[in-house]
Design goal:
By secondary structure, this protein is an alpha/beta fold. It contains 23 helices and twelve strands. It has a five-stranded parallel β-sheet, sandwiched between helices. The radius of gyration is 34 Å and the shape is flat. InterPro entries: CheY-like_superfamily, Homeodomain-like_sf, HptR, HTH_AraC, Sig_transdc_resp-reg_receiver. It comes from Paenibacillus sp. BIHB 4019.
Amino acid sequence: MRKVMVVDDERWIRRGLIQMIPWEELGLELACEAVDGEEGYELALLHKPDLLFLDMRMPGFDGKELLGLLAESLPDVVTIVVSGYSDFEYTKEAIRHKAFDYLLKPLKREELITVLGKALAVLDERDRRQEQQHRDSRRNWLLDVLLRGEQAAQSQNQANAPSQAAGIIQTNTALRTECLPELPGEGSGNKALLLLAQPDYYTEQAGIQEAAGKIERSLQQSQPFYFDGGWSFVAAASPVNLGEIAICLFGSRFEPVEIQRLAILLQGMLHEETGTSYSMIAGSKPCLANQLPAVYSKLQQRLDGRQLGEMAIMGFVECAFELEEKPSKQQQHLPIGAANADFYPAELEQAFLVQLQLGNVEQMKAEFNRFFTALAAPSRTVDGLRRSASMLVHALERQLQAADTSLEQLSGKSALAYMELIRLRKDHVSVKRLFEEQILPAVAARRGSSQGRHGEQLVRELQKLIELHYDQPLSLPQIAESRFLNADYVGRLFKKTTGSNFVDYLTEYRIAKATELMRYPQYKNYEIAELVGYEDYRYFSQIFKKKTGQTIGEYRGAAGKTPQ
C-alpha cells in the first residue's frame, strides 16, 4: 500500500478530499493529516509518504516553505498542490519545487482520480527503475566476487605448482581477507553461501544472461518455500567462464537438505533454458562476504576436478580457511597439478607428430584419434583434459615454428588463442571438435605444393603488412622489388587469393580504420586522414564518400559523433 498525507488548515477540505479517494481500489492508505506546514514537515519526516496533498496558502508556515524543505529532505515524494487560488506566484513556486500537479478548489472527483492515476504510474515507474538499479548493483557486487576469485585461482596456480604434487591446497589469504564493498540491501549479520553451476557440455549459446535473469525471477517466487523464507539471494553469469552461473544466498540458517532441494530446482531450470545438463557445487557452510572470492576459487577447483564421466553432479566443498589444508576424500583428485602430468600420453603424441611431419593426413588423423581416446578416458578429469589438450597445442606450435610457420599463420588464431578456447570447454567432445574442425585442417592444408604454399604465405605477409602499417605510404612495386619479385605477378597473386587488388584492399582497410576513429569526437577529420595514411585531406574525403556513399560530415552526424 502506498502512503498518502494531506496538509490543509481547513478540516472540512481535508475530510472532503479523503472521502473522494477510492483507497482500496488504488492501493492507498492514509498515513496522516496536518493543519499547517510546520506540523506537515514533522509528520512527513516521520511517515515518509509516497503522495502528498498540499494546500499552498496556510497561516504561518505555508505550502511554499514546506515544498522547499521537502525538496531537500524527501525529494522522492510526489506532491499534488490543492489550492483555492490560481495565483501566479503559488504556481511558480509549485513548478520550481517540481510539484507533480496543481488542482484548484473546489475539487472535482473526476479530476482528482485522473491526477492520482498519473501520479501512481510515475511512482510505479520509479519503483521499477529503483528495483532494477538495486538488482544491477547487487549483480555487479557478485561479479566483483567472481573476478576476485579468478585472480585468486590464477595466483594460487602459480604459487602452488611445487606443492600440488604433495596434495596441498593453499588458500590465497591476501585475496580472502581483502575487504569487499558492502552488498546493497544486506545486513551485516547475514552470512553468505555460494553455489556455482557449470555446463557439462560446451555450448556457444548466448542466452546465459537471460537464463540468469529467469533464475532470479524463479527464486523470488520460491523464497517462501525454502529456509523458512528468511533469506535473500543474488545471481550472475560469469564474465569469464562461458555458461557458468553463480548464485549467492544470504541468511542465518541453511540446511544441506534444503540446499540440495534448491540445487535440483536450479539444475532443472538451467537444463530447460540452455539445453544442456549442469553440475552444481556449494560451499559446505556459510561464510563471511570477504571470504567469497576464495570460496569461488575452491568451487571451481572441485568442478574442474570432476571426472569426465560425472554429469549433473551436486555436491559440497569444505571451505575451512586454514593456510594449508589437506583435501578430503571427496576432493582427492583436486587439484590436478603436476600429478596429472604422469598420465599425459607422450608416446601417442609423438606418433601423431611424426605422421604430421611426413604429411600423411589419413594416418595423422588415425594417430590423433588414438591420442585423444587416451585423453578422454572417463576416469580423467576436466582439468586434466584441458591441460593435456593445451600441451598438444604447444607441441604442434613448436613443430610448426621449426618449419618457419605457426598456427596463427595457418589458421588465423595463435596457440594462446586456442588454449583459451580449450579452457572454456569442459567436455571431451567439444575439445576434440575444436581440433578436428579448426586446428588439424589448417595444419594439414600446409602440405600443398611448395609453390602454392609460398604464394599463400606471401599474400598473408602482405595482408599483415597492411594491418600493421596502413598509416604509412605502401607501394606494391616497391614491396615486390624488395623481395626480388615481379610486381605484376605479386599483384595477380594477391587478387587471386583475396579477391581484391592491392590498392583496393589497402583503401578498404584504411577507410574501415577511419570509421573506427570517427567514433571518438575528439578526433578532427583531418587528424583521422593523417592517422590512416592520407596526407591530402581533400583526397581522403573523396575516397571516403566513394567507399561509404556518405560525406564525412554525414557519416559522423548520423553516428552522433561530430568532432568537438
